């Protein structure tokens, strides 16, 4: 296990701690990244993915754990940012021994890092990890967990979208707007339901025939189009990327007819210059990590003993946070993601600083 520590300001890109974990027998190779514990124990999921190299795994965990620090800060949680990656193909490598070995490394951090699900890991895996560590959330309902986090993720995205609608059109509703949903998976289907309830028209697409069939049956009023390219160039007011990351690249932005982008997908901007391109085209971008925080709000609530109503109330506050970020962006003449980063850094500094008040 190798560890290095940084004394950087928590608001900078410097990580507090990065831990390399190996258990040869089970094949476990994991890296745990703790960006900041300024607001409390780091919280973020475990990604199990066949990275091409250790460098790629390290780059991803550094990036993801930093993103979690900002997401958790803006979600109003008493958690810092952390994330872990297990390097390898989950189909071939995942076993009880590997997950439990991983759990022991999480335990060895003494509560500086709480883990949960991410790409390649599921609630059932967290139940196995939990046999070796107390510092795990996102567990199955049978084990006191909250279950599927997509319910509150979709609710939070809807709240962020409502705030952006108010900013753009003066009223916090999507009534009468055409919303393009790319990805009718766990989050996209719940989001579609909220939008329809609110009186929006939904245009959608998915690559999965099963997802399309489910939508046709459940929401026959949804207009389905061939693919995301057709969706972005269609006559929509709002684009909601709810599939994979990198949904907004140069070509997509050039073709986009929507005035707003707000969706669940992580890391929507293919490169940092995209936000300026969106702004230049008069497109309002509600930062992904602000509006999709409902899932982490849910797993954080589970640490207290899950209460759905309390967690939903917290996810509803994504409306206020998004509104505040858009107001700040206008006031400071910066894109919303820059305003969001500033707000997150302010909370990490203002609240993190309180630990310097001596108690005993
Ligand atoms: N589930 C959560 O709580 C949560 C929380 C935060 C962020 N997110 C992010 O939101 C996104 C959606 O999450 P999910 O849980 O709904 O995942 P999911 O796997 O259930 O759904 C994704 C859907 O996108 C579809 N898809 C894949 N490629 C596509 C393409 N090129 N065009 C159109 N559709 C495509 C898939 O067929 C699938 O139906 C992901 O980026 C995820 O990281 C999810």
Give the secondary structure arrangement, pairings included.
Layout: E1 2-5, E2 17-23, E3 28-36, E4 42-43, E5 46-49, H1 54-74, E6 80-87, H2 90-93, H3 96-108, E7 113-114, H4 123-129, H5 150-169, E8 178-182, H6 186-197, E9 201-205, H7 209-218, E10 223-224, H8 228-232, E11 238-241, H9 250-255, E12 260-261, H10 274-280, E13 284-285, H11 288-291, H12 294-304, H13 308-316, H14 318-332, H15 336-352
Parallel strand pairs: 4-6, 4-7, 5-6, 8-9, 8-11, 9-10, 11-12, 12-13
Antiparallel strand pairs: 1-2, 2-3, 3-6
Helix pairs in contact: 1-15, 3-4, 5-6, 5-12, 5-13, 5-14, 12-13, 14-15
The site of nicotinamide-adenine-dinucleotide has 25 residues, from helix 5 and helix 6.
Structural write-up:
The protein is of the alpha/beta class and 360 residues long. It is built from 15 helices and 13 strands. The strands form 2 sheets. Strands 1, 2, 3, 4, 5, 6 and 7 form a 7-stranded mixed beta sheet that branches. A 6-stranded parallel beta sheet has the order 10-9-8-11-12-13, with helices on both faces. Strand 5, helix 1 and strand 6 form a beta-alpha-beta unit. Helix 5 (150-169) packs across helix 12 (294-304) and helix 5 runs parallel beside helix 14 (318-332). The longest helix has 21 residues, at 54-74. Nicotinamide-adenine-dinucleotide (NAD) binds next to helix 5 and helix 6.
